[in-house]
Amino acid sequence: MAEQQMDGYMHCGPCPSCRFEAWQRVVDGRLRWEESQHCAESGTQACGGGWGPPPPWVRERIVAEEGTVRLAVGGPDGLPLKAVRALYGLTLPELREAREHGIEATPVEAGLLAERAAAAEPGRADSSTHPVPPVTAPGSGPAGPG
To answer: Which of 3, 5, 88, 93 counts the most CB atoms within 10 A of its CB?
Structure first.
């Protein structure tokens, strides 16, 4: 479950001057998301953030901007089940579904999972030389895990 924090106030419509931004990054080996909303016309602003996968409305903005990549889960060429389950907080049935069909990850999530896969397997010492192979091309399929 994602931890969330929101600071500031938004009282605008939204209007054509409103700007919304959302992004992810890895901080100390953990997934972090941030969002910022501001309106130059009304002078309002708000920002928020949290740890783990972002809430759906933030994820939608990230996916719209950066796309997704479908990654294989489990097996000799896929992501370790434990890493996928830990990052997304999947139940066992959801993990089984991800194992069968792969998982949609943002580029930042895919990078973090590749790093964890490299750390979990001695043969994958460097995720840049042993990337986790995608099942399909970036930007395909619906957003969200599994």
So the answer is: 88
Alpha carbon distance 66, 45 (integer Å): 23
| Angle formed by the axes of helices 107-120 and 81-88, nearest 10° | 140
User: What are the distances in angstroms from CA 132 to CA 3, 40, 90?
Assistant: 27, 42, 20
pLDDT in tens, 124-146: 444 443 444 444 434 444 334 43
| 5 three-state secondary structure | strand
> Is the distance from CB of 132 to CB of 114 less than 8 angstroms?
yes
For the stretch 5-39, pLDDT in tens is: 545 445 566 678 888 899 999 999 999 999 998 88
* Cα distance between residue 11 and residue 131, in whole Å: 45
